Amino acid sequence: MASFEETFTQPKTTVPKKSSGIIGYDVPEGVDIRGRYDPEFSKILTRGALQFVTDLQREFRNHIKYAMECRREAKMRYNNGGLPGFDPTTKYIREGEWVCAPVPQAVADRRVEITGPVDRKMVIDALNSRAKVFMADFEDALSPSWENLMRGHINLRDAVNRTITFHDQARNKVYKQNDQTAKLFVRPRGWHLPEAHIFIDGEPATGCLVDFGLYFFHNYANFRKTQGEGSGPFFYLPKMEHSREARIWNNVFERAEKWVRIEKGSIRATALIETLPAVFQMNEILYELRDHSVGLNCGRWDYIFSYIKTFQGHPDRLLPDRTQVGMAQHFMRSYSDLLIHTCHKRGVHAMGGMAAHIPIRDDPAANEAALELVRKDKLREVTAGHDGTWVTHPGLVPACMEVFTNNMGNSPNQIHSMKRQDASILDEEDLLQRPRGVCTLECLRLNTRVGIQYLAAWLAGLGCVPLYNFMEEAAAAEISRVQNWQWLNYGVELDGDGVGVKVNLHLFGRVVEDEMARIEREVGKEKFKKGMYKVACKLFTGQCTAPILDDFMTLDAYNNIVIHHPIGSSRL
Length: 572
What we know:
Elements: H1 4-8, E1 31-33, H2 47-79, H3 91-95, E2 112-117, H4 120-127, E3 133-137, H5 146-160, E4 165-168, E5 173-176, E6 183-187, E7 194-200, E8 203-206, H6 207-225, E9 234-237, H7 243-260, E10 268-273, H8 276-279, H9 282-288, E11 293-298, H10 300-310, H11 330-345, E12 350-355, H12 364-384, E13 388-391, H13 397-408, H14 428-431, H15 441-459, E14 465-467, E15 470-472, H16 474-490, H17 505-523, H18 525-530, H19 533-544, H20 553-558
Parallel strand pairs: 2-3, 2-13, 3-6, 6-9, 9-10, 10-11, 11-12, 12-13
Antiparallel strand pairs: 1-7, 4-5, 7-8, 14-15
């Protein structure tokens, strides 16, 4: 498969000059905007903002390339039989008596956080949800089309400035921010993702530097005056695998603080521990970010995805049905417990995992049963020592808030009251214990159905998709893809539902055919015909049957949503 440099490196497009009668983006030397021109977008893509992003790109691109090369080398070791583990050379960090900078008062209480894309109405609903924090997502909950990205930055700018409104014309209702809102965190994309609508010095910009740079440049001052109470802005950092990647983020933060002349340590971030290699680097990640950290988060769905991907070359580590891989599995519980111990030892938040349920409005009994499962999960988290949790729907906020408040009382967190010293003895064997369970044809079908429908929505511009009473993000489709690939690659026997057959290409082909027919019945023929289901099916099945497992489904699919506009289409 061609690299992004090969795919997107095209003849240099000269940026239109206003003096020629053409209106285009005013860009610094070496910058080429290949996305559609829009006068509203130009208020985000100002020369100053683009210069800031360009400076970050030029300063850190070689560090990023080195970190990605280290990922590839680690992947080769794992594929050749190696296992991830604690690094003996950083034992002094794990055993050292150091703590992170004190948590700012503005984000001391994070007992319920809501996540979602940077869609305008979603931003308003999430800020008004009564959650303590809203994580606005440029990553797994967003399909990174040019339109979505630029409008997302407009929406966040308006939210920080408290001018955001949304007119629902169908209901003739205007939505706006309440006086009291959730604290805003922003999650940029991971290090591996490019931004192919912006070229800097002839190559695609790094997606997360674009996300961070544009948001920070336009919002740091107003955010610090209002939401940050003198600190911030606040961020979530995804998909890291090693502390060297955290070191890059720390240097980016210090560079940004110095550039706008704010105090070192003003920017604060929570790192998601959502890859298997990162669980062995939690102390090191916090150490690198110690002036800027406000904790770690259990990104448990991506963690399951990463478990399969890390062990793709290990036929003795096959994952059972995804529905059986919950927090009761020893390796998952060990990951959560060690994260709590590590965070509290270092004086920062230990955030729990996602509750992806959405209200079932037409079935009260089923809705209450689902809510009860959520309550039990959150009770497990708070009693284990987590300081807060994630939800994807405002309807879950009250139930989760009640569970945490009933157990934490008036304390904003459990950083100093739940040290979990018992978890200090957890070792590599605990964190790598093979999951137990069975494999079923129903899981193969569900994986296929969810993966194709999510990818179809993603290609159509939606990154957060309601499917079967869950709000699914990219992680759900990634689990579907890599588990199907693993089962196909190793000919797994479906021993859990009496089928007793082995997964092979013939069986998978029949499953795909059946599930496409089911999707058509469920969504209706008209929507199926107009949608991206056939394109998604081709992409998804191609990745499930590929001889080599791709690192990320969205990297391949990204080619389908990148639209480059020539000079002529950049006119008013």
